[in-house]
Each structure stands twice: as structure tokens, then as C-alpha cells.
Amino acid sequence: LDFTPSPHKHFVDKHRVELTKRVSNIAPILDELLDNEVIDQETYTRIRALSTTQDKMRELYIGPLQAAACKKIFYDILLKNEKFLVKELSEKD
């Protein structure tokens, strides 16, 4: 088995732990995911009801962020809403 990380791992996957810990303003991100039809109203309501931002991020990762197309949209939304965090993590790559 080869455990070396793929050099083509998506930013969203590569930085999953840091993003889960450090994304601070999840509400506008969820709003945009709903607008872009990455999540439906039911998922949006369920995630919004979770008590911590970390739980909300984990829920996104186990659901919608499994799909490559969703990762791209999520990344673009992150870039808009968490610009400095994305920049900092990109510099670590």
C-alpha cells in the first residue's frame, strides 16, 4: 500500500483539519452553498442547527464536500469569505 499523499489532492481535502478548526464565519458560506445548490434547504437547516462551527464544517465534509464539483464551489466561497485563512494555508503547500 502506498500512503504518500497525492500531489493532486484538492485544497479542501488537504487542509481539512485546519479548515474545520479555523473557519470562523460559517453562516455566509452556508448561505452561498445553498444558493449554489451544493446543499438543499433541509441540509442547510440541519447544519445551521448544529452548535459549533467545527460541527458544521465536519457535517459539510461528510456530506456535500465528497463531490469534486462541490469542492470547487466551496473553495471559491472560502476564497471570498475566509481570504486570509486560504492564503495562509496555500503558502504552506
Topology readout:
Elements: H1 11-14, H2 16-22, H3 26-35, H4 41-49, H5 53-62, H6 68-81, H7 83-92
Helix pairs in contact: 2-5, 3-4, 3-6, 6-7
Explain how this protein is built.
- By secondary structure, this protein is mainly alpha-helical.
- It has a single domain, classed as Death Domain, Fas (Orthogonal Bundle).
- The chain has helices at residues 11-14, 16-22, 26-35, 41-49, 53-62, 68-81, 83-92.
- Helix 3 (26-35) packs antiparallel against helix 4 (41-49) and helix 6 (68-81) crosses helix 7.
- The longest helix has 14 residues, at 68-81.
- The protein starts with 10 loop residues before the first helix and ends with a helix.
- The mean pLDDT is 92.
Main sheet properties: none
Distance between the termini: 24 Å
Low-pLDDT segments: none
**N-to-C SSE series?**
HHHHHHH
CATH class bucket? Mainly Alpha
State the helix count.
7
Task: Return the structural class.
Answer: mainly alpha
Q: What is the approximate shape? A: globular
- Mean residue pLDDT: 92
The name of the CATH superfamily reads Death Domain, Fas
**Percent of residues in β-strands:** under 5%
CATH architecture tag: Orthogonal Bundle
Q: Could you tell me the number of beta strands?
A: 0
Helix content: 55-70%
Whole-number total of structural domains? 1
CATH topology: Death Domain, Fas
Report the C-alpha radius of gyration, rounded.
Answer: 13 Å
Pfam families: CARD (PF00619)
Keywords: Cytoplasm, Immunity, Inflammatory response, Innate immunity
Domain CARD: 4-60
GO cellular component, one term: cytosol
